[in-house]
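Narrative of activities, Objective 1.

The group set out to show that a structural description can be obtained from nothing but a protein's sequence at a throughput compatible with the screening campaign. Below is one input-output pair from the validation batch, recorded exactly as produced.
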Amino acid sequence: MPMLRLAIVLHTFIGTSAAGAAVIAVLVMGYMGMMPILWAALAGFLVSIPLTWMVAKTIYDGS
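Output recorded for this entry:
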């Protein structure tokens, strides 16, 4: 349970950072519509879930 709480806290930061980076990448590529931006934000958020789990596991295990 403590690792889950750590993962939730980390996901607030990692998820927003990944979603923001994906949105910036889409805007730099020239897509200005709402749907590409929303899809990029969703993709960044979903990609951050396993990344968050790996970071939380590393921190929790002390490696």
